[in-house]
Amino acid sequence: MMKNIGIIIETDNGKIKETNFGMITLAGANKPQLFAFVMDADARALKEDLESFGITKIVDISLPPDQQNNPMVRAQAIINAIKEFNICAVFGLSTAMGKDLLPRIAALIEAPLIMDCFHVDLEQNLVKTSQYSGKTIATIKLTGDVLILGVRPNAIEPIKAPESAQILELKQDGIHLVSKGFRVIRTGGADKSKPIDLVEVDVIIAGGRGMKNGENFTLLSECAEKLKAAVGASRVAVDSGWAPYSMQVGQTGEKVSPRVYIACGLSGSIQHFAGMKTARMVIAINTDENAAIMSNCDYYVKADALEIIPKLTKLL
Q1: Quick one: which of 150, 172, 206, 289 could link to 115 by a disulfide (CB 3.0–4.6 Å)?
Q2: CB neighbours of 77 closer than 8 A, spacing ≥ 6?
Q3: pLDDT tens track for 210-261
């Protein structure tokens, strides 16, 4: 019997975030029927892109205008979709939205939850995720009628698998969306100056102690703009006040899986490496050829990042 898999689609300004496509590829590995749950965009506008990666059902979940930002209402709406379409597993991204929404869904239906997955076998209900600051890989067997899975962004290479999709509307008539006492008092407008999300970007250029001060992080920002990259930082840089905590990569910061990670003046401590070890390519720039990052990278430059980065920016 073909399994029905639900996938929570994240969008930005009405467009699908690229990181969704790797998640869809992972969910569709054993050829189940894939349902895309769309809450924040016009489902019809997303149809072509979702079809190209194997989605066969697109569920347009409309929420009351005054409840669209209430996470408890959003969780209940997904639960309604799970029941309506007999879903046996729900996939979402381990992003800020996913970390808020997926645990709520799991708690409300008492379902098993694993976040930050990078491998899922729905035939045996096995998932893989890293533990102990990336020192080991845990293979976990889940039991339950519905599995809730948070997928690490960029961990899976998207592969197109064209299908024809049908758009379905989730009827909310007669279904009470309860907030369980959670009330949204105020929401702010989108901050257009907000930096690119570290966990979703393809390229990260990160600075450590070798950047020497906060002003020099401007060099990284200028280079990142040319690369359409995000700027990251080590804990030392953050603790020194050179960069905000939102830019911290490592054991106590963000866990990232970009295609390219450029480490500038970073020693490559175990704690930092735990946050970026799943990057597909690591390029290091350091004056110390014996720094730990030099033995944990694909390419390195033995040089001062403060000299190399401006030259790279100029070339770009």
Answers
A1: 150
A2: 39, 61, 63, 170, 172, 177
A3: 999 999 999 999 999 999 999 999 999 999 999 999 999 998 889 899 999 9
Sheet holding 147-151, edge to edge: 136-141, 126-131, 113-121, 147-151, 89-93, 4-8, 33-38, 57-60, 166-169
Domain 203-315: which CATH class?
alpha beta
Which has the closest alpha carbon to 94: 119, 113, 117?
A: 117
| Alpha helices (runs of H) in the chain, residue ranges in sequence order | 19-27, 43-52, 71-84, 96-109, 217-227, 235-239, 270-276, 305-315
| pTM of the model as a whole | 0.84
Class of the CATH-defined domain 4-169: alpha beta
**Gap between the Cα atoms of 92 and 272, Å rounded:** 26
Q: Which residue has the tokens 């409840």?
A: 67
State the amino acid at position 97 in one-letter form.
M
